[in-house]
Amino acid sequence: MMRRIALVLAALALLSAGSTTAAGQRHLSDPDAVTTGSTSSATGSSYTFETLLQGRPVRWDPCTAIHWRYRTTGQVVGGFTQVVKAIARISKATGTTWVYDGAVSTAPTSGWLPKTSATRQPVLIGWTTAAHSDLLRGQSPGVLGVTRTAWFGVTRSGTTTAAIRDAVIALNQAAHLPLSGAVSWYTVILHELSHAMGLGHASSAKQLMYPVIQPGLRDLQAGDLAGLSRVGRGEGCIQL
Ligand SMILES: [Zn+2]
Fold this sequence. Notes:
Blueprint: H1 2-16, E1 25-28, E2 32-35, E3 52-53, E4 56-57, E5 66-71, H2 79-94, E6 98-104, E7 123-128, E8 143-156, E9 159-172, H3 185-197, H4 222-230
Parallel strand pairs: 5-6, 5-7, 7-9
Antiparallel strand pairs: 1-8, 2-8, 3-4, 8-9
Bound molecules: zinc ion (ZN).
C-alpha cells in the first residue's frame, strides 16, 4: 500500500511540473507481477487502480480499438488460444474492442513501449525469460507474469487528461502451468491483462487481482469485474 501511495505522488509531482504540450509526458507503471505461493487474505479491497489522477483511474480510451500482437518465439504450446480467450473475456468485461495485428518475434520488454504519445504501438504479449526481458529480470523464480503500461497525460488550464496508450506483458517461460482451469496460464493472462487495463492489485485473496494466484479461481471475480467496469466503455471516451 505504501508503494502505491508513493507511485501516485510521483505521478502527480511529474504532472504538476507542468507539461502543456500536445505530446504529453510518458509515465511507466512499475512492473507488476503475479506469483505462486501460499499467502492468503480473505478480506481486503476487492479492486484497486494502478494509478489515480485527480481521484480518477488512469485508463485507455475505451472508444478506440486496442491493437495487439503476439510473440510466437518461445511460446507455450496451445498458449495463443488462451491469450485469445482471455482477451475476449477482458473485451467483454470492459466493453473495449481488441484487434489482432499478427505475430512477432520481439521479446516483451520495456523497450517496446512508445516514448511519445504520437507513436502508435500495439500491446505485446508473449512468453520470455529473464535473460531476454527486463520485466522478468531480478524477479523471484515464482513469478509467472509481469505487465508494464505506458500512459500519457496532458495538462491544459489546470485540468489533466490522461490515457494508457500501450502495455507489454511478459509471461515466464520457465514456469509450468496448465493452459486452463485454476492456477493456469489462462488465469495468469487474465490477471496481466487486467493490469494492462489499469487495475492494481486487490488485497482480497478472493479476487484474481490478488498478487499471489489462489487455487480455485478459474476466472475474474466480482471485485475484478467491478474494477474493470470502472476502466471500461461505460465511463465514457477520452480524447487526449
Ligand atoms: Zn499483478
